[in-house]
Specification:
heterodimer; A: 117 residues; mainly beta; 7-stranded mixed β-sheet; 4-stranded antiparallel β-sheet; globular; B: 112 residues; 11 strands
């Protein structure tokens, strides 16, 4: 069974940094692209970042490019999202997804990030 | 960016009835490889989104055949027949033909 467990969310001040983790199990991690998608409270879904199975290429929308970095450790079956220069509009639940290959087939339970002073 | 427009925003239905949700894209979703990367998700209250349909019309593992997807180019439809209580929630379309990946704004399926 595919399992994705996100951790690392919490309350952070504007301008500060936070790093999210997603531990994967139930599949061969290094065979799949992985992504992060977020959902602001009461709002719709927004894709945040994707990474190829080797980690050699990464993709971002303009809203987070230059501030967020997606990475992975295939030996530890773990996906990361380093978030810098956080803004109030980054407040959201962040979901880790396994891509199949370019759609988001499996989702974690999400971790809430609140950016506020 | 490709804009995904979903209609309606809210869709009241009766149990056992049928529902239809439209998703239109601002440009063609046909990839250079010939595939069309348009997908549908359901987010039940308090839960993570779950994949229903991938590549326009393919049901994901475990998805009942009450759900069907159709369309081409820029115009796509999700149909739900014989609506059951567990079908209620927010539906989203997603395009992954182009970067950035973009979602529709969502359709809330609720009881009439």
């Amino acid at each position: 069974e595919v399992q994705l467990v996100e951790t690392g969310g919490g309350l952070v001040q504007p301008g500060r940094s936070l790093k999210l983790s997603c531990v994967a199990s139930g599949f061969t991690f290094n065979n799949y692209w992985m992504s992060w998608t977020r959902q602001a409270p009461g709002k719709g879904l927004e894709w945040v970042a994707s990474i190829t199975n080797s980690g050699g290429s990464t993709y971002y929308p303009d809203s987070v490019k230059g501030r967020f970095t997606i990475s992975r450790d295939n030996a530890q079956n773990t996906l990361y999202l380093q978030m810098n220069s956080l803004r109030s509009e980054d407040t959201a639940t962040y979901y880790c997804t396994r891509d199949n290959p370019v759609w988001f087939a499996y989702w974690g339970q999400g971790t809430l990030v609140t950016v506020s002073s | 960016d490709v804009v995904m427009t979903q209609t309606p925003v809210s869709l009241p239905v009766s149990l056992g009835g049928q529902a239809s949700i439209s998703c239109r894209s601002s440009q063609s979703l046909v990839h250079s490889n010939g595939n069309t990367y348009l997908h549908w998700y359901l987010q039940k209250p308090g839960q993570s989104p779950q994949l229903l349909i991938y590549r326009v019309s393919n049901r994901f593992s475990g998805v009942p055949d009450r759900f069907s997807g159709s369309g081409s180019g820029t115009d796509f439809t999700l149909k739900i027949s014989r609506v059951e209580p567990e079908d209620l929630g927010d539906y989203y379309c997603l395009q992954s033909t182009h970067f950035p990946r973009t979602f529709g704004g969502g359709t809330k399926l609720e009881l009439k």
